[in-house]
Amino acid sequence: MKKAVVLLLTFTIVLTLLCACGDAAVSESSADTESDESTISEESTVSEISEESTAPDVNAKLIWDDVFADATFKTADDVLKATVYVNGKASSKYDASPASYDVKYVLSGKDYSRVVNYVDGYAVTLPGSDIECDLSLALIRVKYKTDDYCLTVTNESGNPYGNNANGWKTYNDEWLERYLVDNNFISKNNLRRTEAVTTYDDLVEGYEARFYSISINNPGDIEMPYYTIVVLKKPTEYVNFKLFVLKSKQNMSSEMKGVIASYTEINPQGSAVDTQLAYELKMEENWDDTTKAYFEQVMAQTTVDWGFYHYNCVARTSSDYFANRKNITELLTWSSETLGYDMQIYPTYLHIGWGENTTPFPTEQAKEYAGGDGTNGKPVLQCSYQFTTSNNTGLNGYTPMFDILRGKYDDHFRSIAQAIKKYGAPVWFRLNNEMNSDWTSYCGMCTLLDPDIFIATWQRMYDIFIEEGVTNCIFVFNPIAVDTPYGSWSNYLNYYPGSDYCQALGLTSYEMNNTGLTSFKDAYTKVYNKNMPYFKDYPWVIGEFACGGGGDKYYDWGQGKYINTTLGRNSSAQANWITQMFTYFEDLTASKSEFISRLKYAVWFSSNDYADDGKVLNYLDIRGNTAAEEAFRNAFAKIKK
Question: Looking at CB atoms within 10 Å, which of 110, 203, 257, 615 has the fewest?
Fold first, then answer.
């Protein structure tokens, strides 16, 4: 009896001390709620759940709200470990106000965890008691990870087609399930549908959940080949929805139904905060001395080098080598004689190949037309390499992305690496530009709405280059300025391969000039503001861009059809746009110099986009537009002075 009394007294004292500490924490943190975020503790005071642990975590009572409850977690007593994240970091600030901070909880039991995301307004129960939260890009997505799966959840609100059934159908058909429901796409890429596409209206009251369950056959190095993708929305809501992309080592379609059934909508509070600060710039340690010296020279320069694209280099084995050789010579002569400028950057494109035929790197031709190293008076090569075997057409067919991770193209990548090594001079290697789009064979829509596959393929090629001893490649990450599809899951940052795999940021923003005109200054000010928080230490290059002169036809969004018109009708506006661009370059006031000083080179894409009927959609080629040529010539004359 005495032993029981002692135990009771001991427990009472401990509980009193814990409550006192809790009250003190509440008092202290309430006083500094408005203080600088750096005062938030990064340390978590909770420990892992031991095999024998069945005692509730006393801290759970400090944060529990009955709105969190579901069939697995009915009260705070069901929580064995409570982890609090404040502004993306594990914290002991249990009283942090969800309205003032970015507050998230992971409430773990023996076999499941209840995650609460105040900013995005939901709670959901996940399998596993040891959930890792990736909150690095919390502004656009959250990842929940275990050894067995990775679940990415995004809040989506990018549908531009209207909050109505027809608007949703257009958005959904074009940007969400275009390939997910296409059996030809599934077959061509050796994927398998593990369950029929199904919409459930009985998992979450007031919501409909559309499930896509697909696995990657012969996954190669793909660690988690099973995908369950869920679009969760209210039946009468056509803009806002949540996207769940689960990938796992084993088929978890059934478990995912339980996850969605546990979904609880909570009142959104606070604002999301990224923990991802500016990416670190790392010079590749394997670069040769020439490439290092060139890169350092570029980092120090305050002028912009220029190049013009129209024709690709082709290998000597190509049937059109001699015709292409003539065309390239004419392009270089045009730049030198008509514009009065010797190109400092020579751009070319290279694809994996066409169909089953792979394309070699054009070493000899690249030496002939480029070969620059920043000191020898020759243009430096920009090679835009793309993972496509169809020139980015027929996207409902084959994408190389899954086969790359299966190892199909390893030997080809090795041959490309060996050829670039033989080329010898520095190369701006612009890998898979405009990946955050809906028009490339390597876009996220082609990889089960999972940009991680893009990252894995990039890293695979990079690692092969290192293995083959390539010492002269500067890798350029070059998204398009506007993410397409519109949304969070397709945000360009989701595709970034990491600081160990990239040394430059590429920029691309086109002005098609068919129905209106946005100035270079306005377009690239947006680009600057978007990228500065993440890439402020990187060299910036405009991998390709242009302003059009007005095509034969254009798509009228209001009428929902193509309109035939007069080619080149906006050529004078195109020339004025170029003149104003250079005026912006020259006016290095404090507000502009930050961007211009980061810009190392720019490539004008002097080649047109065509419709299926052969008519010009985007008239970008300035050769022969005397006003545009004069605008460049005048600007280059000033640069030379």
Answer: 110
Q: Answer whether residue 19 shows pLDDT above 50.
A: no
Q: Residue 186: enclosing H or E segment and its boundaries?
A: helix 183-188
Note the pLDDT tens digit of each residue in 157-210.
999 999 999 999 999 999 999 999 999 999 999 999 999 999 999 999 999 999
- Beta strands of 329-459 (E only): which ranges? 345-351, 353-354, 357-358, 380-386, 427-431
Q: What is the pLDDT of residue 588?
A: 62
**Are residues 262 and 71 in contact, defined by beta-carbon separation less than 8 angstroms?**
yes
Residues 6+ apart with CB under 8 A from 249: 148, 149, 223, 224, 225, 226
Phi–psi pair at 348, nearest 5 degrees: -145, 160
Residue 496 DSSP SS3 = coil
Task: Express each pLDDT in 558-615 by its tens digit.
Answer: 787 899 999 999 999 999 999 999 998 887 665 667 888 889 999 999 999 998 899 9
Q: Judging by beta carbons within 10 Å of its beta carbon (0-12, 13-18, 19+), is residue 365 exposed, middle or buried?
A: buried
Q: How far apart are CA 57 and CA 59, in angstroms?
A: 5
Under 8 Å CB-to-CB from 104, ≥6 apart: which residues? 84, 85, 115, 116, 117, 118, 119, 133, 135, 142
Encoded amino acid at 234, one letter: K
Whose CA is closest to 86, among 70, 52, 109, 63? 63
What would the DSSP string read from start to end of 19-81?
Answer: HHHHHHHHHHHHHTTTS-GGGS-------PPPTT--SPPTTHHHH--GGG--SS--SGGG-SE
What are 520-544's pLDDT values in tens digits? Answer: 999 999 999 999 999 999 999 999 9
The per-residue DSSP string of 538-589 comes to S-EEEEEE-B----SEEEETTTTEEEE--TTTTHHHHHHHHHHHHHHHH---
**Mean pLDDT over each residue of the chain, to the nearest integer:** 90
C-alpha–C-alpha distance, residues 169 and 490, integer Å? 19
